[in-house]
Design brief:
This protein is of the alpha/beta class. Helix content is 34%, strand content 24%. The chain is built from nine helices and 13 strands.
Length: 230
C-alpha cells in the first residue's frame, strides 16, 4: 500500500513568511519534505495556492497542484487534491511542510494503521512536554488516553500532554467530511482545526513518534540549517 502523501505549502505564513521556499542546503525547504515522503510512497504531491511554488516545483521535477487560494487550511488543500484525482487512494497523508526530519517509517506505519480503524490518525511525540514546550505557544500539545485516543489539543500549557506532530492520516470519506466543516468557536479560539473535528464527533488517534523539527519561527529555521549541516 502506497498512500497518497499531500504536502500543503503556502507563502503567506504569519510567523515565518515564504517558509516553503526558504533554502536548506541550497534547496527549498519543501524539497526536503518531499524527499522524505518519497522514501515511503511513489505518490507524493505539493498542494499550493502560489504560482511561485509551482514554478519552483517544476524546476525540481516535483509534482504540484495549484489549489484554490480561498482554502483556509492544508486539510482543504488535501481534499481538493483527492477530489481532482482519477484514482481514489485508500489513505491520504497530510504532511505539513513545516514538519521536518520526522521518521518516514513512522508515517508509513500511521498510514497502514489507518486502513483498519475509523476517525483520523496523527502522530504524538513519545515523551511528555518539557516546561519550555508547555509555555511555547508555537508547540501544539495533545492530551490522549492510554489507548492513544486524543481528547484535547491546545497551544496553552496543557499539563500531562505530549507535543503534537503535524502529520495526519485520513480515509477519503473522512477527509471529505472534515474539510467541508467550518471552524467552530473553540477551534477558532485556539487556531487548531483538530478541535473542530473532535467537536463534531470524530476520533483522533495519536500514534507514537520520535519527533523531528517543527519550523515555526526564525529560530527553528536556524536550528534546522545547523542540524542538516552537521
Amino acid at each position: 500500500m502506497s498512500p497518497l502523501i499531500v504536502i500543503p505549502a503556502r507563502l503567506k505564513s504569519e510567523r515565518l513568511p515564504n517558509k516553503p521556499l526558504l533554502p536548506v542546503c541550497g534547496r527549498p525547504l519543501y524539497v526536503l519534505i518531499y524527499r522524505l515522503a518519497r522514501s515511503i510512497s511513489h505518490n507524493v504531491i505539493i498542494a499550493t495556492p502560489d504560482v511561485e511554488i509551482t514554478k519552483s516545483c517544476e524546476a525540481y521535477n516535483i509534482p504540484a497542484m495549484l489549489t484554490d487560494p480561498e482554502h483556509t487550511s492544508g486539510t482543504e488543500r488535501c481534499a481538493e487534491v483527492v477530489q481532482r484525482s482519477v484514482r481514489k487512494p485508500e489513505v491520504i497523508i497530510n504532511w505539513q511542510v513545516d514538519e521536518v526530519l520526522d521518521e518516514p517509517k513512522e508515517v508509513l506505519k500511521l498510514a497502514h494503521r489507518q486502513i483498519n480503524r475509523g476517525g483520523i490518525g496523527t502522530l504524538l511525540e513519545t515523551d511528555l512536554c518539557t516546561e519550555e514546550e508547555l509555555e511555547c505557544p508555537h508547540t501544539v500539545k495533545a492530551a490522549a488516553n492510554p489507548s492513544g485516543r486524543c481528547f484535547w489539543f491546545s497551544r496553552g500549557a496543557l499539563r500531562g500532554s505530549r507535543p503534537h506532530v503535524g502529520i495526519y492520516a485520513f480515509s477519503p470519506s473522512v477527509l471529505s467530511a472534515v474539510s467541508a466543516r467550518r471552524s467552530t468557536p473553540l477551534s477558532a479560539a485556539e487556531s487548531l482545526e483538530q478541535l473542530s473535528w473532535l467537536e463534531i464527533g470524530y476520533a483522533i488517534w495519536g500514534d507514537p513518534s520520535s519527533g523531528g523539527i517543527q519550523i515555526n519561527t526564525q529560530t527553528d529555521y536556524d536550528l534546522l540549517c545547523k542540524v542538516v549541516k552537521e
